[in-house]
Amino acid sequence: MEIFFHEISVSTRQRIEIVDITRQVEEAVTKSGVKNGLCLIHAPHATAAIVANENEYGLINDIVRKVEEVFPIGAGYQHDRIDDNAHAHLASAFIGSSRIFPVKNSRILRGTWQNVFLVEADGPRNRRVVVEVLGE
Predict the structure, then answer these.
(1) What is the pLDDT of residues 42-96, one digit of tens each?
(2) Residue 119 sits in a domain of what CATH number?
(3) Start-to-end C-alpha separation, the chain
(4) Is the separation of the CB atoms in 117 and 50 below 8 Å?
(5) By residue range, what is the domain housing residue 87?
(6) Overall pTM surpassing 0.85 (yes/no)
(7) Which residue of 2, 11, 97, 119 is most buried, as measured by CB atoms within 10 A?
């Protein structure tokens, strides 16, 4: 079994932002040499998440708006006494910091309209995303 690690660097510019990282993930899978297996995509941050969905401008804005609505900034969270970013911790906790895709014929299996995104909830920041590919 082969195990391959790759890190993607992402610089965000907004407090809440959705960044398409599909191309970088697919490049990592190709570089891994793994033909069939699994691809783990993980944001090792307490205030960022990973999602899979369609890269359509309106939908991206809808996702940002929904994150702001469900996890509003300054809503009296206890953690804000320490860091003033409880909304971002909650968004990451509920959305999730990892996604797993099957790999077949050296490509991640995703739906026609399914891309991979980093969800920034406490930007702007420099983030890293870990891609681990396992298989043969």
Answers:
(1) 999 999 999 999 999 999 999 999 999 999 999 999 999 999 999 999 999 999 9
(2) 2.60.120.460
(3) 5
(4) yes
(5) 2-135
(6) yes
(7) 119
